[in-house]
Design goal:
Blueprint (H helix, E strand, L loop, with lengths): L3 H28 L1 E5 L5 E6 L4 E6 L7 H32 L2 H23 L2
Helix pairs in contact: 1-2
């Protein structure tokens, strides 16, 4: 059996490793800025890793779309930008999400949340 000091040293190494990975992921996520133009170039949007809109640019031809056309182009473009942001964020998070220790913890957390949700819905 390992000595307590060996176990503590190993745990400190694990925490240091996860802390370093977490900081690297946070840094990568903070750099993600997705710029997506509408299909016909009437407008463009910029979103961050969380899909939050940072900027919207309208070209002069955007006003010729009318309110319904402009709204549709805007929603469509935002959805495409959000999708790309989600892909890039997932890729940036791989140093953490591919770690078996973290995936096991996330899986247990989801299971506990699902069980709690199930219990709440049956008691209503």
């Amino acid at each position: 059996m390992a000595e307590p000091s060996d176990w503590e040293a190993k745990q400190r190494e694990v925490v240091a490793d996860l802390t370093q990975r977490s900081r690297a992921v946070e840094e990568a996520l903070s750099r993600i800025k997705i710029r997506v133009p509408s299909r016909n170039g009437e407008l463009g949007v910029v979103v961050n890793a969380q899909g939050h809109i940072l900027d919207v640019r309208l070209a002069p031809q955007a006003l010729r779309l009318g309110t319904a056309g402009l709204a549709q182009a805007l929603v469509e473009t935002i959805k495409r930008a959000e999708g790309e942001a989600a892909k890039q964020a997932a890729e940036a998070a791989k140093p953490l999400t591919s770690d078996p220790r973290i995936t096991a913890t996330l899986s247990e957390s989801r299971q506990m949340r699902n069980e709690a949700d199930s219990t709440r819905s049956t008691t209503r």
